[in-house]
Amino acid sequence: MKTVIAEKPSVARSIAEFLGATNKMDGFFEGNGYRVTWAIGHLVKLAELNSYPGFDSPNWRDSIQSLPFVPKQFKLTISLNDGIKQQYFKIKNLFDNTSEIIVATDAGQEGELIFRYIYLLSGSRKPFKRLWISSLTNEAFEKGFKNLKPGTDYDNLYYAAKARSESDWILGINLTRVYSVKYGNNDIKVVSIGRVQTPTLNLICQRYLDNSNFKKSAFFIPILALNHNNGKFLLKYSEQFSTNEKAEEILKLVGNVINCSSVEKSILRTSPPKLFNLTHLQQHANKKFGMSAQATLDTLQSLYEGKYLTYPRTDSNYLSDDMKGDVQKSLSSLKSFHSLASPVTSVLARSLNTAPFNNDKITDHHAIIPTGELPNISKLTKEQHDIFLSVVERFIQTFSDDCIEDKTVLNFKTHAPGVFRVGGKIINQIGWKEINLFNLKENDENEEDDDNGLLPDINQNDFCSVLKKSVHPGFTAAPKLFTEASLLKQMENASDTIGDLETKFGIGTPATRAGIIETLLARGFIKRESKNLVPTQAGLSIYKLTHNELIGKILLTAEFEEKLKLISSGDYLYSNFLSEIRALAATSVLAVHTNDIDASALAMTSQTDNEQVICPKCKKGSITENEKAFRCNQWKSGCDFKIWKSFMGRTLTGVNVKELIIKGKTRKMTFKSQKTGNEYEAYAIMKDERVVLEFVENKKFQKYK
To answer: Which residues constitute the domain of residue 130?
Structure first.
């Protein structure tokens, strides 16, 4: 009997159906020589610091001088949740009584780590093979099970994931403790620090400060309104001026008629956009639909598990060279979908564009594309509908024709040193831009502001009459606050913030960036204002503490990301990386011990953002936040009111707690069963000073559509 372990129950169910393991058992499926089980995400994890001797005292602040602490051997542990604990022992029993293990967790670093941690803690020595697939279709399963790889082929991937997990533990645990002891106060006792979290927070804070401190200055641009054979148009001067008087001086040099000094004609050929990777799709969804990065990832995951889209956690915009047949098949299936017959038929009628195929630009996974399986679009949620159509739209665009435009620039010289000019574009071949499933105008960031449509037919040396002269006033703009879309772009291209560097790098990975943003929100360091992300006072306080320290700088974590990639490819040793992390932890802890930042100037606030929420039990204290819970600040006087952050598969935020206490009920939220992994909708409500669930439509476990 062989055991297959997937990452989630829904994926295990799909694999079991394919293998013919149709008997539903307690914690697994069985049949046809297979048992198929699931891990429920990070079932096994690194143990907390208080599990190590010397750090197990409740007065952990007294042990601060013994930091940094780096275990010689990291301990693994399982969740205290009974459902998760029971699933672990079911998996262990299956491992103990199997001939072979087939690893079917998500094909990437985190998926590999999830399995290896379970395997290590279980003490199993059974051989294992790897199922490496990018979609959950039967065709992908068939190909994957025929080409199972030896588990040792992915040792380097495991070492990279292990290095990431352990380095984040070393830096996060040690620095969070030392910062908390030195700078924590009654509002925030735990000052959370992280290898990627803190530089990302500092990016947001720096942009916010640049925006807040920006002093705008006026500028003035000379404008001419012209007429040529009853065709009216505007000209803009090629320079702008700091005073209105200087702009007026330019206009005085223009008479009642003006001569066209040159006509520049060119053909603009715009290639189709690249296929989506995760980060670019998250940016797209945030700009177009206002979806958060995490919501986009969650929606993609559901469409992947529904077999409609390929694997979501990818950093590639390309496909492998052997996927031309898969593309043809997916395109053919789309001919009957959403009025796409005409553009898809046009794409299939010619040779397939080869630009999206490039083996050298694929790491673990290829770009996100439709699998060819078509959903019943009326049964999709709005988020699923928008994301699925976005991927389909981009897929067809990528294999469509170039957009070809005729561009004309008219230049008019006067006695002034510069020129007046206007540009216009006419579409000759619309190509890929015709594919617009949402009927929305696409924003072209590279499009020039002075580009118009059709211009009058003007030749060189033609004269035009001047209808009006005017000065257009304007103001320099402050740096825009980050949205999730622009922050993701900055995280992906973090090297752009440092200057002229030959090496390009990002911080975080496509799979972790959404989680970093959600962590900063959950911990009350940033908040959403409309589409913008802005720091809270707590976030600004941490920025003051860390922006000049190694842990707060982008370059440091970016260098580590590059080394993690090298570990994954076998070009750098895991042991060398951990040695560097140990040294960094020692340096960083010492820096905190010796720095001279005035702690009293750092006004830490909780997620309630200075707005006090009165304790519903004692009616005297107010609610504050620590690492694991929200509680009354009168706890020393005997008030034991507390709301744990971790609740039914999700983290409650300060906003949720405010709603619970003030309104008695949160907005509708998605929760997850710790036993089955199924998601369902419910309200969190306050009942007898406890948080309980009120299920939507009395359906306890609603499957995620």
So the answer is: 2-162
